[in-house]
Structure formats: C-alpha cells, structure tokens
Amino acid sequence: MSFSSEVKAELSANISTSRHCQLAELAAFLCFLGRVDEDKKGGVSLGLQTENAAVQRKCFTLLKKTFNIDEGALPLCYEEGKGHTYVNLTENSSEVNKILQAIKIDEKEGLKSAGEKGVNPLLIKNACCKRAFLRGAFLCIGSMSDPGKSYHLEFVCTHKGSAEQLKELIQGFEVDAKIVIRKKYYVVYLKEGAGIVDLLNIMEAHISLMNFENYRIVKEVRNSINRKVNCETANITKTVNASSKQIEDILLIRERYGFQNLPDNLRVTAELRLEYPDATLKELGQILNPTVGKSGMNHRLRKLSEIADRLRD
Ligand SMILES: [Zn+2]
Fold first, then answer.
1. Rounded to the nearest whole angstrom, what is the distance from the C-alpha of residue 20 to the centroid of ligand 1?
2. What is the per-residue burial (b if ≥16 Cβ within 10 Å, else e) of 181-204?
C-alpha cells in the first residue's frame, strides 16, 4: 500500500463523534465529489462521483449517523464512462433537501456553486470542524508522496475558490500551503516535511504521522552522514592539492638551487614535506623537534614557494 493510501485508510476509520464535525466532513465529500441530479418528475437524487471505496463507505457512515439514511436497496454503483464511478446516495428528494440544508448549501446556487466557491464558512467555524473538513478533503482530492522519496502533499481542486478556501484553512493552522495551477486544476500543496507533519496532526492521522516521522529520522541521519563524508572528502582534497603544489616547488628548489643552500628551518621543512606528502600542516609541525604550529609551518612553506617562484622567473 502506498503511504497516501495508508493515510486515507487511517482517515476513513476516524469518525467524528459530534454532529457538527460529521456535517463538516460530509460537506467536503459533497462539495468535492457530490452531484445532484433532477429526474423527469422533478424529483432530485444525490450521489458521489468516486471509485474510492473508502470514501463511499465513509460517506454512508456519516449519512447514517447524521440523517439516519441507510444504503438501502439503491442501485449503488455504476460506471459512467471511462474512470467515472457514480454512487447513488439517496433518491428521496426530501432527504436530499434536508442534507443540503444541513450543510448550508444554498438551494438556488446548489452544490456546484459550493464546489466552485468553497463551503459556507459557518460550517467550518470551529477548529474541530475545520479538522474534519480537511480529513474529508484529503480523502476526496488529497494525496501525498512516499516520504522515503520526497516530501509532497497536495489537494487537487477543480476550482480556484475551493482551492483558496482550502489554502486559507490550512494556513489558519499556521501551516504554509501554496497553490499552483496544473493543467486545468488548482493544486494546493505542502512541500516542507514539518508542514506535512503538522497537517497529518491536524487531520488526526496519528499513526501515519509517526510513520512519517520515522522516515524523516532515517533520511536526516543518512543526510547528515553524507554531509560529513562530503566535508571530509573536501578537506582531504584540499590538503592533497596544497601539498602537491608544495612538492612541486620543493622539487624545483632541490633541482635548481640545492637544499644545502636553504636556511636550516626551510631545509628541514622541505625534506619533511617530501617524506610525508599526505600530512596536514599541523601533523607535519608535530613531527619536528621542537614542534612547530600550523601557522609556523604555513609560513615556512610560503617562503619555499616564494623561492620557487623566484627560480621560475
Ligand atoms: Zn466540530
């Protein structure tokens, strides 16, 4: 199972106990995936467009709890062309109206308008209801990448208004969310590991949160080891590069000038460098008796380099 579906499985098992929260989540389902159809006799039916069984099940659970509506004997699911599954929720017009009223859907403007502009803010006034709404939204239009690979969580909205509402809702919890337009969709997304942790917490997906953190820890340890290795490699390269230039200078001096003509301290340093090409300046200085500090060694090698430069001229 992908990490995203693990989160969804956890969210679909989380049923709010308060009616206000149940309605808020139901509103998310209906605004993002719901559809009201009129029949020839002027009656209306309510359904969901989703092939996601977890969403279908949870929607029925919420309808049962809030309106005592059963799945009943309706023709539940049918395919509507490619990749479109429609689930009939109720064909009873008075039930449909009751539901739409409870989730504060304007009778004239209807579900479509709520899908475009976002839900009535009164419905998600409480923090608990905001959490429930986000749970519903993630189940309907959310997904996230495997934290072992990258940190990315997104909600794919078909309308700008509902995307803005989602973004503001998430930002209201002090989590940074952005919107990017992808093809004809408005995608609300989070890119930071810390933000995703916060959002999982807000949606009350606590098991997924722990799993996500485990991935994060493993990744961070691995990154920190890589950083150290890279840093050490860089230092070694630096030492080797400096050393090979010094050796080049020293060999030139030996050939054209002769070690015997150098002052003692420079001669000893030159011989030592040839003997220990990989040693750092600090290590070289410690071999000498009496020992010489790093800056002292640096000074001596610079002198040698100046002599070599003069010889080159
Ligand atoms: Zn609530």
1. 5
2. eeeebbbbbbeebebbbbbbebbb
Rounded to the nearest angstrom, the distance between the alpha carbon of 15 and the centre of ligand 1 is 12
How far, in Å, is the centroid of ligand 1 from the Cα of 308? 81
Task: Give the Å distance between the CA of 129 and the centre of ligand 1.
Answer: 4
In angstroms, the CA 76 to CA 63 distance is 14
| Angstrom distance (rounded) from CA 32 to CA 48 | 9
Q: What is the pLDDT of residues 136-149, one digit of tens each?
A: 999 999 999 999 88
Contacts of 56 (CB under 8 A, 6+ apart): 48, 50, 77, 87
From ligand 1's centre to the CA of 34, what distance in Å?
Answer: 21
- Cα distance between residue 153 and residue 163, in whole Å: 14
Query: What pTM value is reported for the model?
Result: 0.71
Q: How far is the CA of 42 from the centre of ligand 1 (A)?
A: 34
Domains of the chain in sequence order: 3-204 (3.10.28.10), 235-312 (no CATH)
Ligand 1 centre from 18 Cα, in Å? Answer: 6
Helical H runs in the chain? 3-12, 19-33, 53-67, 93-102, 110-117, 127-141, 160-171, 193-202, 206-256, 264-275, 281-287, 294-312
**Per-residue pLDDT tens over the stretch 155-173:** 999 999 999 999 999 999 9
DSSP letter at 34 equals E
